[in-house]
Amino acid sequence: MTMTPSNRVRVEAVTDRQQMVELQSETEDFVWKGLFKVGGIAALIAGLVFRRNLGAELTLLRGSGLITGGPATSPETVLDWFALLQNNPLLGLTWLNLFDVVNYILVGLMFLALFAALRRVNQSAMTIAAALVFAGVVIYLASNQALTIFSLSDQYATATTDAQRSMLLAAGQATLAIHYNAGYEGTGLYLSFFCVTVAGLISSAVMLRSRIFSKVTAYVGLLANGFGLGYYLVLAFAPAMIALPLSISAIFLLTWYVLIGRQLWTNHLIHLGS
Predict the structure, then answer these.
(1) What predicted TM-score, i.e. pTM, was given to this entire model?
(2) Is 211:269 a contact under the CB 8 Å cutoff?
(3) How is 164-231 classified by DSSP, letter by letter?
(4) pLDDT in tens, 235-260
């Protein structure tokens, strides 16, 4: 059967569209593959190095006697903070949650990869989770004042007049009110932690319906983020035990991040089957 010119044009058009679709699919696979690797590395670093709430872990270890050096609790006054930052800057910056800044950025990259991996399972839920994480990261970066307080402590140490020291103490008090107040986190830090934790719960629930991640990964994520939300209950009813839910959550978070990192790194995640 001889193909007419019009039929030949239609066949060539269909073939061109198919080639374009295949090329687009290959390009998307390449992008997702790179994103999975970046997200996997970020998850591993966030879990093993720059863990969230290192200050709470430090308080628990100090209280249990496993760590004996330095003060047992974080300072409550601006002057005490300045003294700690001058005498032991690493400890002071840890209690001011400076390393959480790195953690939030890494976790943001991890959730971006999770969105790519789980979007076909439940795109609406993962879109909400991604939006919450983005909001949480932005709020945290704007709220963490650790470096500002550290800079003020340096200026206070070199101040030569009482007027300068009084001005720096006032500035430190105002900055501390944004970041840290009598051992509790400021409003922005509460909100950012809440956003990221709820996003973790949503993502863990979506994992239960996915063939990409194991059920163990999903349940560990539910426990990690569930204990994280328990922080607010303990803060309201038993503030003396404030470090406990965060420290328990940290154990599960470490495991969850490692599991996610390992599974994102594997090549089979290129095939985003649900």
Answers:
(1) 0.76
(2) no
(3) HHHHHHHHHHHHHHHHEETTEE-HHHHHHHHHHHHHHHHHHHHHTT-SSS-HHHHHHHHHHHHHHHHH
(4) 778 877 876 887 788 889 999 999 99
